[in-house]
Hints:
5-stranded parallel sheet; alpha+beta; 408 residues; FAD/NAD(P)-binding domain; 12 helices
Amino acid sequence: MKKVIVVGGGPAGMFAALAAAEAGNAVTLIEKNEKLGKKLFITGKGRCNITNAGDMDDLFDHVVTNRRFLYSAFYACDNLRVIDFFERHGVKTKTERGNRVFPESDHSSDVIAALKRALNEAGVKIRLLTRAESILSEMGFCTGIRLEGGERMYADAVILASGGVSYPKTGATGDGYLFARQAGHTIKDPEPSLVPFTVKEGYVTAMQGLSLKNVRVTVTDGKKTLFEDFGEMLFTHFGVSGPLCLSASSRVGGLLKKQPLFMWIDLKPALTKEQLDRRLLRDFEANINKQLKNAVQGLLPQKLQPVFIDLSGIPADKKVNAITREERAGLLALLKAFPLTLTGLRGFDEAIITRGGVSVKEVNPSTMESKLLSGLYFAGEVLDLDATTGGYNLQIAWSTGWLAGSSV
């Protein structure tokens, strides 16, 4: 029986502790917060998107950074195993649009409670309000950790699952990067990911709070398409957010350091240009004596209408029967490609995850063990791994945590 210390009581740390305990080890899980799963509690707007029910190809396709590194981890603990784990521990699940898996109750607290029960059943010792300060090592082996205050905890293996730096109010301060550097590891500079965009155009403030569902978003650099997807987005006082935009940020966010990017919103993606043109003609015929501002009420959400008309260049009080074919073509083009200029990303306070972290080149993908210091393992967001929205990042946490814990 080995003594194992897991640093970090998030999803990766809890799964690592469970896997290590089930393998017959004496496991201590330390967490600097007053409770486990503090960040997990707020994921999915408090509903907790546990994983994604897509097939294995789908899981890999949605990993943005270092997907090949995750081959062993995903197969050691795939999404079906995660779902089965929670079902067995009393959390009934449901699958929603985009194969997103949630607890049936829509309460992240149920997910955390199930993990706590499992940890207790497995005999994991949990120490809350306990902060690691450094890694202990001797002759190329990790021998434990030093706690804040000077206490030394010795172990045969240490698993670092201390997260990144996103949502610092949950205690995410990047401690794991410091520990990894102590062991000689390279840290790729952390950046916010799955984070809202700032936008150049001032008219977004007039649409603050407007949620658009079933739209198609395309992001380009002016020449080539960088991102394209269908779903839901939200206008804010500073720009755009929502699932579509968060996923786009994980794909294109790094490019915004060099130049602005262009977002085009297809407001009517279910209709071809020809079908939409016929729809416009029918609407105009039905409102032939009305002003344009009154004729678009059935076509667009209220907050979007004045902005849309202003961008069209057509006077809002112009009668529909006076609108020219060229003006109608402009309206059609605007419906299929509503323009925004992306200028940057919001900060770590609003980022769901952290991009960057411990270089995976220095970690064994088959075990999650450091290649530089024997007995030191990594799991979760502390690693340079990230994915789009939809439960994929939590799956990375479960998978890497389980592989690290079972490999000790």
